[in-house]
Amino acid sequence: MAGCGEPAAEASASVDPYASESQSLDEGVANERRIIVYQTTSLQLYTVDKKGKDVLLAQRSGVPMVSPDGRQVAYAKLPDTWNAGDPVEHAELHVFDSKSGKSERLTRGHDDAEPIWTPDGRNLLFQSTRRTGMASLWKVRVGGNGLEQVTNEGLVRNAAGYIPNPVSSTEAQWAPTERRIIVYSTTSLTNGDVRVIDFDRQLDVEKSYSLGQGYSPRWTEQGTVVFSQNNGGQVTFVEVSVD
Question: CA-CA-CA-CA torsion for 227, 233, 234, 235, nearest 10 degrees?
Fold first, then answer.
């Protein structure tokens, strides 16, 4: 599904963008590998094409996530009538390709949101509740094939083996190594569960466990995880090794 064009002057005249993201690689091919996307305060999602023209991708969207190579952006397309604060009952995953200038729909008919690119850029993890009634992570290949549930299959909440979702895709980070490990928190501003999920090559869960209570976890160059912890109003920092 291709985005429809909007003049840059008209886009900026209505609302000011509050978030933008760009990424470039390898100086020799930077022009081919740069993508710029931004959301307005009304959650319209735009990209800027090679001629500097604003292109509307969605009237309402979740946070756009740029692919590791900087050529594509994944986003959850919400109903045009959705407003911030409303429950997400309907959302479909799309991927915009800067080379073709088109968006492709990957999922439909559920509440698919919060996409996370895998390090190789071939797959997306995302959150859905309505598919099974259980908040879970799912995976889908770019192109829309290989849709499978990743966490909490056949479980009820708080059952043994239950894995809570990240509070958002922006709170999840892959390990800075070849290992497929993701760290995230279940809250963003106060103590929640800081968790690790270790995946195999097929993105099936090998193990998952908690690192403790806290928020805003980040990997270090040494492969440890540092996160904040609120103790009686005093913020401390905790560093944990990951097996």
Answer: 20
